[in-house]
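Can't paste images in this forum, so I'm doing it all in text. The chain is below; anyone willing to post the predicted structure tokens underneath?
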Amino acid sequence: MIKMSVIIPTHNNCEYLRNTIISLQEQKFPKNDYEIIVVDNNSTDNTPEVVEECKRNGEKEIVYVKERNIGLHYARHRGAKIAKGEILAYVDDDVICDSNWLSELIKPYDDPEVGVVGGKILPKYEVEPPEWIKYFSSAYLSLIDEEGEVKESLTIFGCNFSIRKSVLFEVGGFNPDAFGDEKLIWYRGDGESGLIRKVRDAHKKTIYTPFAVVWHVIPKSRLTLDFYKRRAFMEGISDSFTECQVKGCGRIKSIFQIFMFGSISIILKILAVMNKFLKRDKYYYKGEVFSSYYKSRFLYALRLIYDKKLREHVKKEHWI
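Text version of the structure:
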């Protein structure tokens, strides 16, 4: 009987995907108790060939499916719909799982009130990180390194995330996340964060365990100021989506936010330029990144005024 279904959404990342699959094939977990599902979200690289190679060389079979609709939530849901396991375990296509990952991830589910379990995410840097990243939360790189015991938590990231299949369908699935098309960027939502909120509203526990460990590969391209600004910009969109879902987003509120967030973004940008001139690196980097965050909050509020499709989009809660 399959207890756990490991789902790997992937899009044009085949070289990193290879190591993810291998780490899952080498789990110290009964081979017949779990399955590996790779959901190809419309890749144009050699993803099918890499999956086939892993099938031939590994000791664990792989289920391979395609999802044509671009968007992380579409891929996550496609995997859920064909999964045979009672527990769905999600990883990104650029992580390496500890050999005891599944064995530790499943333990908290002995409690029937547990709906979600996530674990520790450690960095695997491809190059030495720059000194300035210490000014920012590790969440910018989707890292969690909390020690201690198993505990209830709201901080669980999607690259080390699991959920009861029944709960996922009950609460309406993942909220929209990570559209690859720039034209659709404003229709992203709060992904697993929104799902966690819905799970908690359904009176289920969300658990963090430090014993279920994965390593997140961090390439050079993610250790740049441009990446951090981009990440902050996307987070601004997600936070705007969350606020609209939880507190509403009327026209008057949007007009107020246009002036407030726009002003904050401009002020932070000016301060960043001044601090760069004064060689105050900490305040320069923070100013640039946080200005980008408030810029997206400003633009989102502006779009809510004239984009009826976006206003309808944020009202939707069931996505699966």
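The beta strands are 4-10, 34-40, 62-66, 87-90, 95-97, 114-125, 151-152, 161-164, 205-218. Residues 225-313 form one domain.
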